[in-house]
């Protein structure tokens, strides 16, 4: 299992696992593979997210653009 990261557009707001996700947050959850992570993103958010990244794609320095930081989902 590895981390999967999901970012959101300006009009994409979701409530998952008791937490609010929006354009200022990065959702993080565990996935078996890149494809499983992407499928889970669509299950959770439908088409209303911006981009999904797997561990090797996510650049930690990008967090500066998300002032509320990571929101870890225990799914």
List keywords for this structure.
75 residues; alpha+beta; 4-stranded mixed beta sheet; two-stranded antiparallel sheet; 1 helix
Strand order of the largest sheet: 5-1-4-6
The number of helices is 1
Which H/E pattern describes the elements?
A: EEEEHEE
Number of strands: 6
Percent of residues in β-strands: 35-45%
Distance between the termini: 13 Å
Structural class: alpha+beta
Task: Specify Rg, calculated over alpha carbons.
Answer: 11 Å
What profile does the largest beta sheet have? Answer: 4 strands, mixed
Mean of residue pLDDT? 95
Q: Percent helix among the residues? A: 10-25%
Low-confidence stretches: none
Shape: globular
Structural summary, described in words:
The protein is 16% helix and 36% strand. It is globular. It has one helix spanning 34-45; strands at 2-7, 14-16, 19-21, 25-31, 51-54, 69-72. A hairpin with a 2-residue loop joins strand 2 and strand 3. The model has no long low-confidence stretch (mean pLDDT 95). Strands 5-1-4-6 form a four-stranded mixed sheet. With 75 residues, the chain is an alpha+beta fold. It is built from one helix and six strands; from the N terminus they run E-E-E-E-H-E-E. It starts with a strand and ends with a strand. The protein has a domain at 1-22 and 34-46.
Concise overview:
With 75 residues, the chain is α+β, with helices and mostly antiparallel strands. The protein has 1 helix and 6 strands, in the order ββββαββ. The radius of gyration is 11 Å and the shape is globular.
């Amino acid at each position: 299992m590895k981390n999967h990261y999901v970012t959101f557009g300006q009009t994409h707001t979701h409530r998952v696992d008791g937490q609010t996700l929006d354009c200022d947050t990065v959702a993080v959850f565990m996935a078996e593979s890149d494809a499983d992570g992407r499928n889970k993103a669509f299950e959770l958010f439908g088409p209303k997210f911006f981009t999904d990244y797997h561990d090797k794609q996510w650049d930690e320095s990008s967090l500066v653009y998300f002032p509320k930081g990571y929101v870890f989902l225990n799914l």
